[in-house]
């Protein structure tokens, strides 16, 4: 599913399937305290408030970036910011909460 900003939306289960054929980067845009409580293994943390002003060399423009937060609302804004900077993004619907559920199934 895509919207007017050309942002791709995928469910956690779909991202798990994508990972079988393609390497992705997980970007956690929650604040550092939330990241420290729990995060997806290997995820890069760049809080949403820093994303606009920070030109991140941590992210590879040749790979899809799966952006997530708790539920998927902040990650939508994060995807828009990264799209303007030339990145390929996926907004993980349902955020880290859905990710944990997908791993349990």
From TrEMBL:
SUPFAM superfamilies: Rhodanese/Cell cycle control phosphatase. InterPro entries: GlpE_sulfurtransferase, Rhodanese-like_dom, Rhodanese-like_dom_sf. Residues 20-104 form the Rhodanese domain. It comes from the Bacteria. Keywords: Transferase. GO terms for molecular function: transferase activity. CDD domains: RHOD. This is Rhodanese-related sulfurtransferase.
